[in-house]
Amino acid sequence: MNGNERALARELRWAGHVGAHAAIVDATSNEGEGGDVRVARVILMNIDALTHTKVWVRVLGASGDAATDEDAHARWRTTDEACGRRSNVYALLHVVAAPIGREWWERWIGERVGACALSVRAFVKNARGFPVLPKEAQAMVRDMFRRNIQIMLTDWNGAPDGCARETIAPGDVAGDEGRVGVDSAHPMRLYWEYLVYLFRGVEPASEQALAEAPYRDYLQAPLQPLMDNLESVTYETFEKDASKYIQYEEAVRCALLDLVPEGDEGSVMVVGAGRGPLVRASLRASERANRNIKVCAVEKNPNAVVTLQHLVAKEGWGDRVQIFPGDMRTCAADVRVDVLVSELLGSFGDNELSPECLDGAQRFLKPTGVSVPQSYESFVAPIAAAKLHDAVVSYKDLKSIETPYVVKFHRVHHIAEPKSVWEFEHPNNAARIDNERYARVEWSSEELGSASSTLHGFAAYFDATLYDGPAGCVRCSIHPHNHTLGPTGELMFSWFPMFFPIQTPVYIDRRGASPTKIEFYIWRRVDAHKMWYEWTIAKPVQGHIHNPNGRSYWIGL
Amino acid sequence: MNGNERALARELRWAGHVGAHAAIVDATSNEGEGGDVRVARVILMNIDALTHTKVWVRVLGASGDAATDEDAHARWRTTDEACGRRSNVYALLHVVAAPIGREWWERWIGERVGACALSVRAFVKNARGFPVLPKEAQAMVRDMFRRNIQIMLTDWNGAPDGCARETIAPGDVAGDEGRVGVDSAHPMRLYWEYLVYLFRGVEPASEQALAEAPYRDYLQAPLQPLMDNLESVTYETFEKDASKYIQYEEAVRCALLDLVPEGDEGSVMVVGAGRGPLVRASLRASERANRNIKVCAVEKNPNAVVTLQHLVAKEGWGDRVQIFPGDMRTCAADVRVDVLVSELLGSFGDNELSPECLDGAQRFLKPTGVSVPQSYESFVAPIAAAKLHDAVVSYKDLKSIETPYVVKFHRVHHIAEPKSVWEFEHPNNAARIDNERYARVEWSSEELGSASSTLHGFAAYFDATLYDGPAGCVRCSIHPHNHTLGPTGELMFSWFPMFFPIQTPVYIDRRGASPTKIEFYIWRRVDAHKMWYEWTIAKPVQGHIHNPNGRSYWIGL
């Protein structure tokens, strides 16, 4: 160890001793060849002694120059990888200029960022002489507020020695209104007030956003919808989302209009009726379509059947609703219906076995009958999501790395747009139904943008067509470009997206002249007892095939 | 799964059922995008059912064309990585032409190769019309024989359908001598006879090579020379190597000539005398230099001391040899000697604590005294060594990945030349002795050659100067370019090299236009109780720093 390294080690241990929240290590000026790796080693050497103290590695988060920004990101990648991606080593983004574009700061959302230090140098003066942020910097700061990334003000000017400070001459700042509670003489007061103003401008969290807050970046293990029976509270959560049932009501209404001649009686079967929300939606659709219907409700969960039977009496459904307890794939019911309604979709469309269940239930359809949903398509997108990857790795086993999770994305950056992988249609009239699927998806250099980023895995979404016919087309989607909205314009919230992790994060290096690609493979596989996915990346580097034979994760049939 | 995938799965399971030695899977003609990954998935899907059957993935090991060779190697990398580097999935090298150069086939030595299938197409006719191999193919085949890689003859001609065969018309081959035991009518007989001829041309293994055979590619955990006492059989092994003691004798002879005036009595201290080989060498040196000497023998192992005391009587050393039981760093002995002789070097020079021990023993030297060895330098080289890496990974823990091993290299390919990392000199007269070291070593694109390969870790060597003075310079080295030879020209065998693994093998891809570098960092660290190394790669990709704070491996002081 040389003198600098010894000094850094001493400072880190001191920070740990006094219980500092974070020790800031400067990666903006590690001079000489190999400086970043050497600094990383000193961090690693002392990290176990820093039980309560985080390490914040200061990098230039926005310098106003693409090459400098890329260099800063690359140095963070070096530090993070050399430290073995330790979860208490963070980037501290030092912003000394307006970001040159959205992708140049958004990529940092997917990294392990401790805080954003905003230099007074990043500010400009407005017409009245007050310090304000340029537009792209405003967007960045607002986004950091939304994502709960701490913003700091600093007068450090980014000079290599790490100590030089901006001079803020008293004459530089506009008039002082001597507000109470703020030290009016403090040279940074106006900068601080501007940030407060920006913070106040961030739209307040909706009730729904507040309800979802605890789920942000929280990995949920996939449901086992066939093997387990849902609890009442889970139904409660599902039923809360008005937007979903509005879509279903509209889809059934259109289907009835197209399939049932005026004056005739139509028939609807709800498979997986649960506590009855789709029965209700179907009855409402019947009224609005001016078609009388009989509803058959099939439900395998005996506890939910009790609630359904209670509802028949309570809501006066009488003989309009008939209940069939049992598994839709096997239960006996001598009926043929016009419309088969189900809400079996998972975040990735088919991941909760909708194809297998509906294949089993389609025997109840008339030859002219339709399924609601009619079809659903699955999408994937490459994402930077250090926080999610850290969480996956913290389980310390291969099983967890080879599991896709349902998760409310928060500190997640989309490296490229979602692409379609496959589709299912119902009813499936193929002579031999094959619900296995395979897809290879590629994002070209052009689709990956200009800024380098880190690939931690893939986001997964569905986009479903509930019904498409002469009377109308009704969709239900969590695809970011096409997300179904509720009556008051809020996003439908019944489904969070899914996250397919990859074992080793990959640096998507956009600095060189050679083209970079991301290539992703995914398989849907089914045997007599279970369904599972297998996946891998093949570009820019070949990974191992995750979850072969469903060794780590599967959904029981 | 499509029809081809189903057919392949069926064949693999059949091979397993009949207990075939290996099932050959064709990766020379996986048509369509993503074919290699899809084939890998089918392999992976069935691999656990193949308990006794290996999978041999057929690739074009030598096609006569650089781009085709590179493509074949890249496809093998894809298959191997997609399969998660499973140890029962091998490359089967299909050779249809003379290799275009040494590095184009040598890189395969470092991959997991099951066999080499030599196509009759790779042969040419000599003047008498007999099939022979071109020179580079001969070199390759001879090397494969030496490394125990199975050679097969095949008339498959490399055509994409995997079945087309070369036509070997009877008229194509020269006269038939009807030898007994060989089917003289077989069209491949002459090819086979030529291979037998090549095999016979391979120099027979020396006695030493035979003795070393069980150690080939066998990972030996590092010794704990200070914490443990060696067993007699270990001394026995060490003492077998005449070449080493010839070097020591010569070094001591030169030192005595330079330091002890004719007629004076010299003094030699052997520290770590063991069962006395260096005492013997010193006495022989004394005779040859015509200088009388007194020898002090320091030894901490009480069991070895018994042998030493016995030797004093048995060999009639009388008062010429005095024994000091104890640790050279602490034992009491009121002597000052001309020459301090030790054999504490490890494969990497300093890895068995020679610096720390000699620093402790140098108080016994006169101000004019010298140490034998005087200095030693450590070297590292990037290597492809799938077999070693597989062995490291088979331990299934981080500890094993972060340990350097002593190993007799066999299926190892040097990707580039060794480079120096650091040096130690004795005696060390610095006011404050610092035996910590740091080195950053880089191999440029030019130094990495033209053929792509796989980096599994680093080979480590030492090159020592036992003595350098007016009377002569005596070296002792296992550096491949400078390996000390014994009296009959055989390699000194006391030290096998070391292997520093890296956690994730890296594809050194030489296909693109952009330059590729390998950058390696290594630290030697010492605290009050132990010495250890830390290491990482930083290019072409950043790895984690291995063994921080000696968490996985250390040598006790």
From TrEMBL, chains A, B:
One of the protein's GO biological processes: regulation of DNA-templated transcription
Residues of the PRMT5 TIM barrel domain: 4-199
Pfam families: PRMT5 (PF05185), PRMT5_C (PF17286), PRMT5_TIM (PF17285)
Keywords, sorted A to Z: Methyltransferase, S-adenosyl-L-methionine, Transferase
Binding site for S-adenosyl-L-methionine: 235, 244-245, 299, 327-328
GO CC annotation terms, alphabetical: cytosol; nucleus
UniProt protein name: Protein arginine N-methyltransferase
UniProt record similarity statement: Belongs to the class I-like SAM-binding methyltransferase superfamily.
Site (Critical for specifying symmetric addition of methyl groups) location in chain: 238
GO molecular function, one term: protein-arginine N-methyltransferase activity
Keyword Transferase on entry: yes
Domain PRMT5 arginine-N-methyltransferase: from-to ranges: 208-371
